[in-house]
Design brief:
The complex is a heterodimer of chains A (294) and B (107).
Chain A: E1 13-19, E2 28-29, E3 52-54, E4 57-58, E5 62-63, E6 72-76, E7 84-92, E8 98-109, E9 136-144, E10 150-151, E11 154-160, E12 166-173, H1 180-184, E13 201-208, E14 223-230, E15 235-241, E16 244-247, E17 266-274, E18 281-292
Antiparallel strand pairs in A: 1-18, 2-7, 3-6, 4-5, 6-18, 7-17, 8-14, 8-18, 9-10, 9-11, 9-17, 11-12, 12-13, 14-15, 15-16
Chain B: E1 4-15, E2 19-20, E3 24-25, E4 31-42, E5 45-52, E6 59-67, E7 71-78, E8 83-90, E9 96-106
Antiparallel strand pairs in B: 1-9, 2-8, 3-8, 4-7, 4-9, 5-6, 5-8
The chains are: A mainly beta (294), B mainly beta (107).
InterPro entries (chain A): DUF6772
Pfam families (chain A): DUF6772
């Protein structure tokens, strides 16, 4: 095993090792379907922002750098409550088997600058008011089974609720991702693109607890994450975030009631970050590994 | 092999007053080029590259581009540091702009 992969625990076939010192490695902006006219893109899929190769820079210290090397992959929202930035990597399944995504990541809100900018919450030198500026980030996939059925797994770290309360735990979604087909028959979502409603999330058993925020928005501490999915069973298997390992095998995964054409063996991985305030939110990836047991 | 990248900074954007695109990190790139594909425009618009040391504070850099009609407009940028954005404003009065903004980057 190379020294780069020694910090990961891949399954036996490494499909990609994405070192963001070498470009975006196929993590591109997600854009909704259209018929050639961009006005037909649904609003929730219309402005999910392009990837950035980032030195993880801040106004106070300059470039933080990645965990290894200079550049990290950055997702950045607009400074508008409810806005989501999302990147997608598109693969296919060579078999229906275990697939695993691993990364070292950090999620931070943009720093506010100036005298009294956090006066809405105060500052006691311990709990930092900027922690309330980080909304949520989500790992998800889009899988087309060989029999034509389709499902999405989605796991979200909810730092704050949509109305700004500190929540700090992992959640899974309980409704289907609204599709163009569903919206054409009148099902209009009220949340982001994952679910029909922002209420359609349930806590992951054993998934409650904070990450290492580290006091201010300009300090970055990299977290290890490993997410395993069984594409044969159509289930999540496990999510590990540092010392916390969550068994996901009993979590229901909604499946569309009809087959989708053209998606046989589809395997898309998605990362997104969502702000709940008028403050940009960032998700940084030092690198990531996608592996499978076929 | 040189790294290059194309980012759609504004997709299908519609504007009727001054705006600046989202801050974009491009420190890895030795050269950059904006493309504005203008589907429709009323009034005279002025667009200007802006650069920043921190993604918060911005100053103009390089030449401005002016247009008042549909078309493809471009401006190249070098020696820009780490951050790029594009600022735009109508020169006067009521105006409208429907455009796609691309940023192309090369190592």
């Amino acid at each position: 095993m190379t020294i780069e992969l020694a910090r990961y625990n891949p399954l036996r076939r490494v499909l990609s090792y994405d070192d963001f010192d070498r470009g975006v490695n196929g993590w591109c902006e997600l854009c909704g379907n259209h018929d050639g006219d961009l006005d037909t893109v649904r609003p929730s899929f219309g402005d999910l922002r392009p990837p950035q190769l980032s030195t993880v820079p801040f106004f106070d210290i300059g470039s933080h750098g990645a965990m290894t090397g200079t550049y990290a992959l950055k997702l950045a929202t607009r400074p508008r409550a409810g806005h989501t930035a999302c990147l997608i990597k598109r693969l296919t399944l060579a078999d229906e088997a275990l697939v695993q995504f691993e990364t070292y990541f950090a999620a931070k809100p943009e720093a506010r600058q100036g005298n009294g900018v956090y006066a809405d919450r105060g500052w006691d030198g311990n709990e930092d008011p900027s922690e309330y500026d980080l909304g949520a980030f989500t790992l998800s996939n889009d899988i087309g089974r060989f029999d034509g059925s389709r499902y999405h797994c989605a796991l979200r770290y909810q730092n704050t609720s949509v109305d700004g309360r500190l929540v700090q735990g992992w959640y899974y979604k309980t409704s289907l991702q609204p599709t163009t087909k569903m919206q054409l028959v009148g099902q209009i979502p009220n949340g982001d693109f994952h679910t029909l409603s922002d209420d359609d999330w349930q806590p992951v058993p054993g998934g409650q607890g904070p990450l290492c925020f580290n006091e201010v928005p300009t300090k970055v501490n990299w977290h290890y994450l490993r997410w395993q999915v069984d594409t044969k069973a159509g289930r999540n298997v496990e999510l590990q975030v540092n010392d916390r390992v969550m068994d996901l095998r009993d979590i229901d995964v909604p499946v569309y009631p009809h087959p989708y054409t053209g998606l046989r063996g589809l395997f898309n991985l998605l990362l997104d970050v969502r702000t709940h305030r008028d403050v940009r939110n960032f998700l940084f990836l030092d690198s990531c590994v996608i592996s499978a047991d076929w | 092999m040189r790294v290059s990248h194309t980012a759609v900074i504004e997709r299908n954007g519609r504007f009727d007053t001054h705006f600046a695109t989202e801050p974009y990190e491009a420190g890895w790139a030795g050269e950059a080029r904006w493309f504005l594909r203008v589907a429709s425009a009323t009034g005279m618009w002025v667009v200007q590259t802006e650069i920043s040391p921190d993604g918060h504070h911005w100053c103009p850099h390089g030449e401005a581009v002016r247009f008042d009609a549909p078309g493809l407009y471009t401006v190249g940028v070098t020696q820009f540091g780490g951050w790029l954005r594009l600022a735009a404003h109508p020169e006067q009065g009521e105006a409208h702009l429907h455009a796609q903004v691309y940023l192309t980057l090369k190592e």
